[in-house]
Design brief:
Tetracycline Repressor, domain 2, homotetramer, Arc Repressor Mutant, subunit A, 9 helices, DNA-binding, mainly alpha, 209 residues
Amino acid sequence: MSSPAVPRGSGRDAITRAARESFAERGYHGSSIRDIAARAGLSLSALYHWHSGKQELLTALIEESTAEYFRRCDEALRTAGDDPAARLGALVRATVEYRVSRQVESTIAASEWRNLDPADRERLDGLRAAASRLWADIVADGVARGAFACEHPDDARRAIVAACNAIAHWYEPEQGYEPDQGDEPDRGLAVPDLVDRYTAIALRVVDCR
Amino acid sequence: MSSPAVPRGSGRDAITRAARESFAERGYHGSSIRDIAARAGLSLSALYHWHSGKQELLTALIEESTAEYFRRCDEALRTAGDDPAARLGALVRATVEYRVSRQVESTIAASEWRNLDPADRERLDGLRAAASRLWADIVADGVARGAFACEHPDDARRAIVAACNAIAHWYEPEQGYEPDQGDEPDRGLAVPDLVDRYTAIALRVVDCR
Amino acid sequence: MSSPAVPRGSGRDAITRAARESFAERGYHGSSIRDIAARAGLSLSALYHWHSGKQELLTALIEESTAEYFRRCDEALRTAGDDPAARLGALVRATVEYRVSRQVESTIAASEWRNLDPADRERLDGLRAAASRLWADIVADGVARGAFACEHPDDARRAIVAACNAIAHWYEPEQGYEPDQGDEPDRGLAVPDLVDRYTAIALRVVDCR
Amino acid sequence: MSSPAVPRGSGRDAITRAARESFAERGYHGSSIRDIAARAGLSLSALYHWHSGKQELLTALIEESTAEYFRRCDEALRTAGDDPAARLGALVRATVEYRVSRQVESTIAASEWRNLDPADRERLDGLRAAASRLWADIVADGVARGAFACEHPDDARRAIVAACNAIAHWYEPEQGYEPDQGDEPDRGLAVPDLVDRYTAIALRVVDCR
DNA sequence: TATGAATGAGAGTTCATTCAT
DNA sequence: CATGAATGAACTCTCATTCAT
């Protein structure tokens, strides 16, 4: 009847995309796989042809996104040298860029973590803890070397991470569809500028000399 | 037959409590009204005797919690005088105290906001925006009067709010059940100390002179 | 609209009855719980109000029927005295009466045994083996005491049991709805007569002197 | 990629074999056509290339097996002479040999008969009735000629048939994989011996002089 | 020959809710 | 006040089958 919205053979991506949208809008438990399949322009059965179920859709999404975050952190720190401020800035940059480029996925990861199945959650909890350690080590090092003067490094770290993460909740990309709707001054802020701003904030939070 | 877990007449509260627990653990869509009734030690029908439905349980919880936040902000600002730093500190205190004393409810409010029914959501959106304005006005005022030197007041505001809000995700109250298990240095930190720490962070974020 | 086929509160039995019918007609996997609920004149949800699921319907049916068989065997042997022929006759009577009075359930038990869930199956396998031993002991005893002259007691036992069990496949109770349709001479044979016939056969199979 | 488990061109048989296994293990409605294809080491589409569907797999299996039973009965009776005992023995032999050599198929035929589609079922019902008549005629003849003294020929016939048919439920072929595991005395009994035993039983059941 | 992609119908089960008492 | 009984809609997932290549 109507021309098929999805070209033959490309069902997998269509479903992944639809799942991402639906999880973002309604949450995991609020999303029905019927809705996901419909969004993808496919039948319910096609979804099961490509994926093993609803849980797998969530797991794949979160896992891929979390892994990317780690890759970004790793790369950023590898080229950051030894200076605590530079290292802190590198991590801020990695986090901000991740939160902006993976705005939807990173938000889903944050809010639907508990809906991972236990085995996957445990595995990924490891990654999370490792990330937390990256931040903690840098702050501790900065304090130890007298670069950072903050009295409560753990709170500083948490504050910085929370601030960076929150970006995904409000940021709207540069070239939006409705540029005239300019009631939000930071709409369309370029990412490098955003990184600079949050790096500055982070350095103040740790009280960098 | 079995001794009633719930004293007569206190059914309403028992249900409210059970709903709070369940929403916190599994989210709104992940919670079943049967599970809530069971947690409360009551029958499904008793739940409907006291409340009009699942939606109402969520709305009441979020509304009450959000209203309390506003009361706290209001009171804090009323006694804060005119100094920008003092006013910012007052708002930080109100927010931190709220996030700690209403740890569970405030988290639910944040994550289940989208599941409010449209009418309620719209109404409460107004409160949210008002809160955002409280913060924004204080920061703007501080910048205008030269008390705060930060270049990007909106980002500063967002960072502070995010940091304060995040407290609910990790804070564990003072008198825990296992005080010896001291592997988390900030476990059981007293609330006034917490307020001081986050006030200091906030002042650094706005670059207060 | 139409008067309810099922009086309030009596849903449990209606469903049990419907499940028995459906399992008998179509087998376990061939029966849908939608069909079972419809046969019972109830909604799908009512089925789940009374039972925990399809599996439980099968298990309850088979378990109850199997237990009854054992009760019958037990009682029959308790009053049978010591004579091997009498004891064999007692077991034949118990089996025939069971197969006739529980015609449908016993057939389901036989054909759907493999669809029990593993835990239940294992438990009931114990009962089955015990029944087999009852038969085997009697035949062995009769042979040992020279009462039975058959050369292959295991085959004799199996033949007798198979013959008794098969009754459920063809027997039609005495007062049928259409007594004129007399093309089957044994239709409506009285149970005591049936017992006598099969007792005689059993005694010939073991070659009773 | 992977070495094909199934040699080219032998797909048809592989599927028939797999269907037989699956129907035997799980029953018709409990078997999925996907599982059958997987067992056969073929794709779902290959199954449909060779067969027209699930129903046909069942029909073919039952039909072929039932036809073979008739061939065996026919042949056995053709060479059996006129003596009632010899003729009864011939039918016992045909049945036992069939039940042993087609152990799996004959069991499926018995238990899945109702799942044949109506047209096929009706046709094959004719064969069944004819078989029943073969037995009945022989018994009646023996009784009429004074060779068999049993009082209830129909019950005798049913008992004999049931006993022979039951063999398929317990018999284990001669050359098992673990011949030492001799806890079942009749394991591996040679077929001619089995035939002798059941012939003897049958003759006792009809009370042959 | 043989395949991977796609489908509609239906499976068992759980949901929030209402009714009769 | 409070209950057990009952419901219809929706859920995730599997089914046998067909299509396009």
